[in-house]
Amino acid sequence: QSALTQPASVSGSPGQSITISCTGTSNDIGDFNYVSWYQQHPDKAPHLIIFDVTNRPSGVSDRFSGSKSGNTASLTISGLQAEDEADYYCSSYRSSTTLFYVFGTGTKVTVL
Amino acid sequence: EVQLVESGGGLVKPGGSLRLSCAASGFTFSSYSMNWVRQAPGKGLEWVSSISSSSSYTHYADSVKGRLTISRDNAKNSLYLQMSSLRAEDTAVYYCAREYSINWFDAWGQGTLVTVSS
Q: Are A102 and B50 inside 8 Å of each other by CB?
């Protein structure tokens, strides 16, 4: 059961934009628009920030945006702020007899 | 306000059993699929199991199939995870999460820590 692949870390200065990639396969990201993204601050529960590839729940800043191309989904954070420093996880539905949902390996975002 | 509160975690010996509970409030529990997601210390998120709103369907990650059993009691607004034949690699914080739509976990509990160690 392989997780989706994310870079271990991404950093940026306040005000900059950063992008986190999430690479899967044709059995998950490539074939379904059921990609979500979660933000997790230390010792806190994950928090949904993007669902169905591009949609933001109410209350989530429009500085967060999602996209997908082929087997790779991406999360972009624009106008980086100190409060954005956290771990970020992608997730996808996977068509498989052995797994239903799969998370990414996680990316630590550091605001310099 | 949507609330999910897990309980039942603790220290258990390898091969032992434990039952986790998740008490839901602030929404119509019987209308939503529910999930368990775990996170080993210092590691990433791992989806564990899912159950449909009426318990008609359950799904499990390969790593827990045959050892962990998800269930729910809609009358009690509660979700459960019966854990047996526990292994050291099951050590993690276990979160319950509401599934608003497919792969869209919009509400999470605070988590309960399960430690499997002799």
A: no
